[in-house]
Amino acid sequence: MPTTPDAATQDEHLPEGAEKRAYVQEMFDRIAPRYDLLNTLMTFGLDRRWRVRTVRALGLAPGQAVLDLASGTGPLLATLRARGLRALGADLSYEMLAAGGARAAGSLQGDAAALPLAGGALDGVVSGFALRNFADLGATFAELARVLRPGGRLAILEVDRPANPLLRLGHRLWFERVVPRLGALLSDARAYAYLPRSVAYLPDPSALATALEAAGFTAVTRLRLSGGLTQVVTATRRGDP
Questions:
Q1: Is the Cα dihedral 43, 46, 48, 52 positive or negative?
Q2: For 72-93, what is the mean pLDDT?
Q3: What angle do CA 27, 72, 75 make, to 5 degrees?
Q4: Adjacent-strand bridge partners of 230
Q5: What are φ and ψ of residue 33, in 5° steps?
Q6: Which of 71, 84, 90, 112 sits CB 3.0–4.6 Å from 108 for a disulfide?
Q7: Nearest Cα residue to 156 out of 82, 53, 65
Q8: How many Cβ atoms sit within 10 Å of the Cβ of residue 47?
Q9: What DSSP state is assigned to residue 91?
Q10: Are 90 and 72 in contact (CB under 8 A)?
């Protein structure tokens, strides 16, 4: 956590590195109790559909092992398990895992860049709306390549920017003006002022594909959902040389 916790809202400071890691952990610990409620309200319930599409994009068979990275309260874990996959969660925030109750039971608390898993242990990895919260994307992608077997699959669900001008304007007003007010009313003002601005951390599609390829992935694809409100980026772990 930064030495001045309000910095992200006072001067629009966006933390980096270890400062960002601490900031994100403390923020999600704070908002855990009402996180699911706010997600449903913010997305008008579309988040459920997006999670289904993300799991489908993995293309894995029932019984295969999948990690939900930054699993939080466990909604994506539940979607994975509903499709017969053996799903494990990992999140930096203990309070998010605790708020998930039975849905998140057995999940790991830990850093995305240093997972307590053996190399090649997984058939797939998913992550929902967390890409912009990782402190070091390069290290995180390298770690995911390490824990995935050759040919293993990655599917990342994230926010996007609609192409249609009217939809883009409406999305911007909702995400940047309404969401912070809704968050302040029902949860935590600082967190829901920070979250819309955290989109600035996201690399553009070309840079994201380049980073994934540098970490050991191939066949990077991008599927835009709901008119570009969200996106699913998929990739395949390259085989050993």
A1: negative
A2: 97
A3: 140
A4: 159, 225
A5: -60, -30
A6: 90
A7: 53
A8: 19
A9: E
A10: no
- Residue 59: name the closest of 228, 240, 237 by CA: 237
- How far CA 207 is from CA of 19, 138, 203, in Å, comes to 23, 11, 6
DSSP symbols for 202-234: PPPHHHHHHHHHHHTEEEEEEEEEGGGTEEEEE
Assess contact for 132 and 161: CB atoms under 8 A: no
Q: How far apart are CA 214 and CA 144, in angstroms?
A: 12
Flag whether pLDDT at 11 surpasses 50.
no
DSSP state of 119: T
Angle among Cα 96, 38, 48 to the nearest 5 degrees reads 85
Structural contact between residues 195 and 183, judged by C-beta atoms closer than 8 angstroms: yes
The CATH number of the domain where 147 resides is what? 3.40.50.150
In this predicted structure, the answer to whether residue 106 has a pLDDT above a threshold of 60 is yes
Answer yes or no: are the C-beta atoms of 157 and 52 closer than 8 Å. no
Instruction: Flag whether 172 is in a domain.
Output: no
Say if CB 127 and CB 70 are below 8 A apart: yes
Number of domains, the chain: 1
Domain that holds residue 89: 7-163+191-237
CA–CA–CA angle 13, 16, 235 (5° rounding): 120
- Does 171 map to a domain? no
How far apart CA 54 and CA 58 sit, in angstroms, is 7
